[in-house]
Fold this protein.
Amino acid sequence: MPDNVQIGDQLGGAFDAVIVGAGFAGLYMLHRLRGLGLSARIYEAGSGVGGTWFWNRYPGARCDVESLEYSYSFSEELEQDWQWTERYASQPEILRYLNHVAERFDLKRDIQLETRVTSATFDETANCWTIVTDRGDRVSAKFCVMATGCLSTAKVPDFKGIETFRGKTYHTGHWPHEGVDFTGQRVGVIGTGSSAIQSIPNIARQASHLFVFQRTPNFSLPARNGPLSPEVAQDWRVNRVEYRDRARAAPFALLIEQSEKLAADVSPEDREREYEERWRRGGFAMLGAFADIIVNQEANDTAAEFVRSKIRGMVDDPAVAEKLLPRDYPIATKRICVDTGYFETFNRDDITLIDARATPIEEITPTGLRTSEADYQLDSIVFATGFDAMTGALCNIEIRGRAGVTLKRKWSEGPRTYLGIMVAGFPNLFTITGPGSPSVLSNMVMAIEQHVDWIAGCLGYLRERQFATVEATVDAENEWVAHVNEVAGATLFPLANSWYVGANIPGKPRVFMPYIGGFAVYRQKCDEVAARGYEGFALCSGAQAASH
Ligand code: NA7
């Protein structure tokens, strides 16, 4: 066997694998690589582990997938020992959990914090990646695993005059660790996505006046959060295997009760009753009320109108309620939000909602913000303006594959992957929950575990058969991209200007990035590909790979 197919043989400055990112994905990947006897290092830009949950510390930050489901399933002992305190875990609790995981599995010794990977270059002769960091590290690795997250590149719009503002500015995705006290301040929040919807009720309680600049109203469902009851926790402990299996077999890897019925199959009264019951349960339950909500406009209209009527009922001032009603896209085609007291917050007399579509923000001034209609005096501005989703973190690293081609260039017309996990021309580079996989359209933790398990299986296979490289073929990639587009096109999703299609980033190609064919279908496809000897991937020995 040639030297360059030895796996598990770490040389100075060389690893079997480098993992970028120490969030849910990176931590579990490291654990699995260790299990294979491979040497690995994680580089993490933050000063602690946690990824998304390290950075997003804005007031009210909370997961909108239930805590029992939004947690690792790979270790029964971990799952039995860890006790979640609320139905939906808050950011501090999830961060504590991830630190616990890192310590419990002794992961921290292979994690280099405060280190950002700046480039990764494939060496076609040696069949390995050279990884360079902003700390001056330069290491080689046979495999490079991008665990960089789907929503990790915070985006502040390029507002004119932003540098002139004399107050404080914050982005929800880069919140100061020491917290922010807005007491007595006039605060502007720009954006009304999930981060804004979670933080606005909390900021409003502190600020002397809160101004919310809303470009697009969002659909949001009540969380009905509360302490996790001991009975629910105990039931999960006993039945966890069954629940996890059911989630894996579900379209979004979530335990939502999904009806098979179409919205038109029932009378308007029964439909209303069904929505009402699911609204009462809280969370994403409503979306499972009928099988055709995301594919049929009329069905979608019934769900959207139900939520609009609820918003009207929660907001006292009809003119404010009218502004908060989402109207120009089908429900769920922009990421649906889950909130606690969001709409009711607009009943306070110290909050003002500004329609930033009718009266756009023209510039940030030294003392606040100017729209086409008025000047607002502000002490602080919160940018709840989202992320360069799914591709941003990957394209910000100079990733060079065969012939020196960068991933950014390859993806200039939109991301192209095979199964969202590998990219033709980039051997031995894996993208956990990459574009073209269910990722953000599913329970992320389940999606991460599925990808990590698949990658670990693939690396074990390579080692057994002494292959040096694995790489998506161009044909398989083309077919997969066409399939991802086709299934998206059969739904209402492409109709919305969402971050799913990159619409929030000026100039980003409009491509529906996640895979909407369903988690269970996708998982099965990945398993079949592996069972057929990694169909659609070229596996090469060292000599073959070098002469590719
Ligand atoms: P989102 O969901 O991308 O929300 C960003 C918000 O910021 C959204 O309301 C945007 O309006 C608004 N925005 C962005 N740019 C501007 C400008 N230039 N002017 C005015 N308003 C602007 O990010 P979040 O952090 O809330 O949530 C991200 C995900 O995290 C979420 O979906 C969950 O999966 C968890 P727009 O809708 O583009 O008109």
Observations:
- Confidence is low (pLDDT under 50) at residues 1-12.
- The first strand starts at residue 14 and ends at 20.
